[in-house]
Design goal:
- The complex is a heterodimer of chains A (235) and B (274).
- Chain A has one domain: Methane Monooxygenase Hydroxylase, Chain G, domain 1 (Up-down Bundle).
- Helices cover 84% and strands 0% of the residues of chain A.
- Chain A has seven helices and no strands.
- In chain A, helix 4 runs antiparallel to helix 5 and helix 5 runs antiparallel to helix 6.
- Chain B is α/β, with parallel strands linked by helices.
- In chain B, helix 4 (123-133) packs across helix 5, helix 5 crosses helix 7 and helix 7 packs parallel to helix 8 (203-216).
- A seven-stranded mixed sheet of chain B has the order 1-11-10-4-9-8-7, sandwiched between helices. In chain B, strands 3-2-5-6 form a four-stranded antiparallel sheet, covered by helices on one side.
- The chains are: A mainly alpha (235), B alpha/beta (274).
- The A-B interface holds A 1-2, 4-9, 12, 78-85, 217-219 and B 229-230, 233, 257-261, 263, 266-267, 269-274.
- Chain B: InterPro entries: AAA+_ATPase (IPR003593), ABC_transporter-like_ATP-bd (IPR003439), ABC_transporter-like_CS (IPR017871), P-loop_NTPase (IPR027417), PstB-like (IPR005670).
- Chain B: Residues 1-16 have a biased composition (Polar residues).
- Chain B: One of its GO terms (biological process) is phosphate ion transmembrane transport.
- Chain B: This is Phosphate ABC transporter ATP-binding protein.
Chain lengths: 235, 274
């Protein structure tokens, strides 16, 4: 459906705009948190790690703020159609963003725990790669949400298999290091948990992309992707 | 294609979302247009109105929804210079057939108006009037039973059973509206038309009427015109959106209010300028 006109009641329009803006702002904070957590992990930067952990409070507060805004709009405006979708999707997206923030916090906190443990740089290569990939996923999912772009949303959902595949290979790689030398076990276990965190970030990015698809089309992506796959198989 | 069709402006297409769970429709409109003198108020409206369910007509003032509603029981016949083209059928009988008895038609298709309009008579007489003139009661006991059953179906009996012979105009607005519904039900209609039935009522009286509409739907084809989109969303299973005399979109209420396919529908229901 082509772009919508503005509401007759301008304060309603402003509230919806403000809700969407707050989601973008929270998204920005979360993207930064993931980037910082990955960076802190790769570079063993304890200071950055601690900042990342502290900043998570802001993200949690924003989720509450978005929930309150959404509840207020539902109670006072009784939104329907795309407005209702925006409000409902915002609640979901804020929840996923908050979880991504937690994953970043957990990764950052863990990165401070292997100070002083010797390790080979190559241990972290897989994580670096995974961090880049999930950051991209989060950014695209948020772009899809802000731009109400269903094609980008589908792309994000489909790419999640790349993240999963990367995690599986990271798991094998770290397992190999552990079998090579039991002294690597502590380190590699920490890294494995970090990998799992990043993999979860990917899942939440997928959820956000699904909400973006719902916002754009009014349909759920899971049902539609089944159809897409069938079409692809046919052609 | 006939000559007249090629000359006509591009035919307006109503966006339709089918409802696989809908009841069959006994009431159908086919290309209904209404003219008031030279002015065309309604353009080629076609819609099936399923039985045992509530269909809501929504749209801004002057969109033709009430005009269309009034076509269904031929209320437009009473307006000077009004002309109806197209076909409305109930069980495949054209309501605009010359041989049709309009009085009998209005017993089969009852109507409830915006403002409660009880007759200046007793509560009992208000409900008994219709069955009497249509000869539906063979005896006084028969008539009493019809009145009581109708009042019960309209959810009013318990409130008025001790004062059936007091004036209907002495009831509260919400009670008067339920009295009008009882009066419509008393003649055994198949279709009940409601033109803004709650717009003069407070929220509690509105809720009671809405509950009543929901109960009545298991027995009747109900069509409601309403300015309250929330009300349409609450009570109806099918929603039709009218704009500038055209039926823009129709479909299951849930679809219309969560994911309308037409931009004009979306702009209207979300409170944007169309």
């Amino acid at each position: 459906m082509p772009g919508s006109n503005e509401h007759i009641v301008s304060s309603y329009e402003e509230e919806l705009t403000e809700l969407a803006r707050t989601i973008s702002e929270m998204g920005g904070l979360v993207e930064k948190a993931v980037a910082n957590a990955t960076e802190a992990l790769i570079r063993s930067d304890a200071e950055l790690a601690l900042t990342t952990v502290a900043d998570d409070k802001k993200i949690d507060a924003m989720q509450n703020q978005i929930d309150e805004m959404a509840v207020s709009i539902i109670a006072r405006r009784q939104p329907v159609a795309l407005d209702l979708r925006l409000v409902i999707a915002s609640i979901h997206v804020a929840n996923d963003l908050e979880r991504i923030g937690d994953m970043a916090k957990s990764t950052a906190r863990r990165s401070t725990q292997f100070e002083g443990i010797a390790m080979s740089v190559q241990f972290k290569n897989g994580l670096r790669h995974m961090g880049e990939l999930v950051q991209r996923q989060v950014r695209l999912a948020l772009d899809a949400f802000t731009g109400r772009d269903k094609d980008i949303a589908v792309e994000v959902v489909e790419r999640d298999t790349d993240v999963d595949a990367l995690y599986v290979s990271l798991f094998r790689e770290l397992l190999t290091y552990m079998m090579e030398d039991p002294r690597n076990i502590t380190m590699c276990t920490h890294l494995l948990f970090c990998g799992k965190n990043l993999e979860r970030v990917g899942d939440h990015a997928t959820n956000i992309a699904e909400q973006a698809y719902f916002l754009a089309t009014g349909k759920t992506l899971v049902a539609d992707i089944g159809d897409l796959k069938r079409e692809q198989i046919k052609s | 294609m006939s000559a007249t069709e090629t000359q006509a402006s591009p035919v307006h297409q109503t966006v339709r979302t089918p409802d696989p769970n809908a009841h069959p429709a006994r009431l159908k409109a086919d290309a209904v247009s209404v003219f008031y003198g030279e002015k065309q108020a309604l353009f080629d409206v076609s819609i099936d109105l399923p039985e045992k369910s509530v269909s809501a007509f929504i749209g801004p003032s002057g969109c033709g929804k009430s005009t269309f509603l009034r076509c269904i029981n031929r209320m437009n016949d009473t307006i000077e210079g009004a002309r109806v083209a197209g076909k409305i059928t109930l069980d495949d009988h054209n309501l605009y057939d010359q041989s049709l008895d309009v009085v009998e038609l209005r017993a089969r298709i009852g109507m409830v108006f915006q403002k409660p309009n009880p007759f200046p008579k007793s509560i009992f007489e208000n409900v008994a009037y219709g069955p009497k003139i249509h000869g539906l009661a063979r005896s006084k006991a028969d008539l009493e039973e019809i009145v009581i059953t109708s009042l019960q179906k309209a959810g009013l009996f318990e409130e008025v059973k001790d004062r059936l012979h007091q004036p209907g105009t002495g009831l509260s607005g919400g009670q008067q509206q339920r009295l009008c519904i009882a009066r419509a039900i008393a003649v055994g209609p198949e279709v009940i038309l409601m033109d803004e039935p709650c717009s003069a009522l407070d929220p509690i009286a509105t809720a009671i009427i809405e509950e009543l509409i929901d109960e009545l739907r298991s027995n009747y084809t109900i069509i409601i015109v309403t300015h309250s989109m929330q009300q349409a969303a609450r009570v109806s299973q099918k929603t039709a959106f009218f704009h500038l005399g055209k039926l823009i979109e129709e479909g299951p209420t849930e679809e219309i209010f969560t994911n309308p396919r037409e931009k004009r529908t979306q702009d209207y229901i979300t409170g944007r300028i169309g």
